[in-house]
């Protein structure tokens, strides 16, 4: 949604906000009466945070409905009112370059259009020695499923070929054998939920129909920059599954009933098998778990013959530091992401990090950096999250790293959202990216009852 469309939205009409403002004034009278007193809130299309005893009410829903109708993701507001009833309402509406954040501050600023964090760009390592498990047996699989589902309607070879064409990848023989027995279409069960349940028990998952098959590449696993940039791909030499976000060789074919995806893995880890079955958890942003060495094993309830093992004494790619000593301990050539101030707020020097070849993401809590300009010595940063004061130092010194793909202003809950938005817009302007829209709506609430 572009700025012009947003500007024409009734979100800027005082009448849209008036019922909510009346409630906010009544419940926050003491706060608003103080010189410079403000009331701050945020409303999105699915949630809201407003300083009211009864947060779920028609006044909030009236604003929310406008967001939904006009396709606006969120609005942060700052309310100021005089004793006469004259009211100013500052509105902050994030652009497409700004992710939704926590509470009243914006999330990550995507400085390069369509940029993805490094783990989301990572492709699988080649495993030329990988072969299907000896247990993979399409004929046995087909006989087994036919015995369990004698009345199932199977997919035709033409339908299977159409699915392969849509996906751009050949389906493994075991998966084709499964679909020749059952095409897993709801219409075939004629609305019988018990029949659908029996089908799931027979094939040991909620099987997608051929149209529901998809390649579980990294972009199918949604995650904010703030979290995704701090992840790291690690595949131990003992692993059966590569520690990826997603892969062009992961064919998602079913669900475990709890929102986790089952997939055929054609890009296994060093100790894995081509065509093994993995589980992609909806509660995790990266990695997958081995379920079975083959689809045949899954159908016959055979456990995998290999368990992933941890790499002994492997240096952590992600680390936390709370003082100079822990920062120095964290500094090693394999370090990719670092968070400063997780358990304290002592200021530290970044000198030990200079020259580290893989460091790409740095989160520094406000007040943890002795000299923010030391950041200029960290080549290769693609994500940087700092407090407002630290960003101000870098901006004043013209020292913001030019290689950044995304950034974030790490402000406390009670920081002035207008100041944070102004700082965010300065950063967005350096890359020519769409800014947070800042507007002021004025009106009169009349004398307070």
What is the compact description of this entry?
With 449 residues, the chain is an alpha+beta fold. The chain has helices at 3-7, 14-27, 29-33, 58-70, 118-121, 138-148, 157-167, 173-181, 193-203, 225-228, 295-299, 324-330, 388-396, 417-430, and strands spanning 39-44, 48-49, 74-81, 86-93, 109-110, 206-207, 214-215, 250-255, 261-265, 276-280, 289-292, 318-321, 337-340, 361-364, 383-386, 406-409, 437-444.
Largest sheet descriptor: 6 strands, mixed
Query: What's the Cα radius of gyration?
Result: 27 Å
Strands, count:
17
Structural class comes to alpha+beta
Low-confidence stretches: none
| Mean pLDDT rating | 92
Helix content: 25-40%
Q: Compute the number of helices.
A: 14
What strand line-up does the widest sheet have? 5-16-15-14-13-12
Shape: flat
**First-last Cα distance:** 39 Å
Strand fraction band? Answer: 15-25%
Q: Topology of this structure?
A:
Elements lengths: L2 H5 L6 H14 L1 H5 L5 E6 L3 E2 L8 H13 L3 E8 L4 E8 L15 E2 L7 H4 L16 H11 L8 H11 L5 H9 L11 H11 L2 E2 L6 E2 L9 H4 L21 E6 L5 E5 L10 E5 L8 E4 L2 H5 L18 E4 L2 H7 L6 E4 L20 E4 L18 E4 L1 H9 L9 E4 L7 H14 L6 E8 L5
Parallel strand pairs: 12-13, 13-14, 14-15, 15-16
Antiparallel strand pairs: 1-2, 1-3, 3-4, 4-17, 5-16, 6-8, 7-8, 8-9, 9-10, 10-11
Helix pairs in contact: 2-4, 6-8, 13-14
